[in-house]
Amino acid sequence: MVCEKDPLVQKITDLYDQISTLDSLKPSKDVNMLFTQLVLTCMPPTHIDVTKLCKKVQQMRSKLIRLCGEAEGLLETHFSTILASYDNPLHHLNIFPYYTNYLKLSQLEFNILTKHCSNVPNKVAFVGSGPLPLTSIVLASFHLKTTSFHNYDIDPSAKSKALRLVSSDPDLSRRMFFHTTDIMDVTNGLKEYDVVFLAALVGMDKDEKVRVVEHLAKYMNPGAVLMLRSAHGARGFLYPVVDPCDLRGFQVLSIFHPTDEVINSVIIARKFPMPKHCSAEHPVGPMKLPNKCFDIDMLNPLLNHVNLMEELDIEDQLS
Ligand SMILES: C[S@@+](CC[C@H](N)C(=O)[O-])C[C@H]1O[C@@H](n2cnc3c(N)ncnc32)[C@H](O)[C@@H]1O
């Protein structure tokens, strides 16, 4: 159990105390300084397992994740508005302070996706794209140049801001679409996608994340791929952690924990194929799926990549 006496937890708690008393989380010198300190404090590999925090620290973590999510949204809105003032916004994305992080995260996600998918996806959904949909823009611009991207965001202002950024680009304006909706209200439409990306900030705590994943498991096409963003170590104070055990309905194919300035861990999973004894007309209820769960650190604390398909015998059990 990790409690408030841990020196790293004390430092994070001190930063939380300062951030939680700010009048506003809109970008400013103070906000930028505090969040930069928080990210630098949480980045290095550490012994801390955020699933084993004492109640008081867990409560602080839940509030801190929400503050980080609010600040991230405000930062993206701020820079999306500035970018919209350019004739060609997409030529100036590097004014966003975390642009290189997105370049690296998208490269990582593309590498992991192509390792597990032989075909180039035709249609991709990005859930939680925001007012500055950098992941979709970077993937569409540099990696998946024939793929169409459907971006979903619950925030009504996200669509208009995002459209202003891509509408000046003849290619992206034909391949990128934006939908204002809670992803929990999208049902059969999810079947159209070969790949669904789930932003780290969709599902801000374990229960919310599980509800979103269960919804995706219910409506995604059998065999379609789900790319999730999680966090590892003290980075779990910045973002929700996705537990592979919660991905019922999916085969977890691999989990990657970056150790550089890319903050999010990446999980790739595939929706189980339809079992042979059932069909769309005669669907089974929630499958009691084999789901060998274990703490990845049990394998090796320094291990930052696990190809679970070598570990799991799910394929045999489904054949
Ligand atoms: C701040 S963005 C971060 C994504 C980032 N722009 C990217 O390209 O990876 C996260 C977005 O998720 C959206 N969101 C949160 N819950 C959602 C839900 N249930 N359905 C759709 N969008 C959601 C928020 O409105 C927010 O704009």
Automatic annotation (TrEMBL):
Its EC number is 2.5.1.43. Keywords: S-adenosyl-L-methionine, Transferase. It catalyses: 3 S-adenosyl-L-methionine = nicotianamine + 3 S-methyl-5'-thioadenosine + 3 H(+). GO terms for biological process: nicotianamine biosynthetic process. Pfam families: NAS. One of its GO terms (molecular function) is nicotianamine synthase activity. Belongs to the nicotianamine synthase (NAS)-like family. Synthesizes nicotianamine, a polyamine which serves as a sensor for the physiological iron status within the plant, and/or might be involved in the transport of iron. This is Nicotianamine synthase. It comes from Gossypium trilobum.
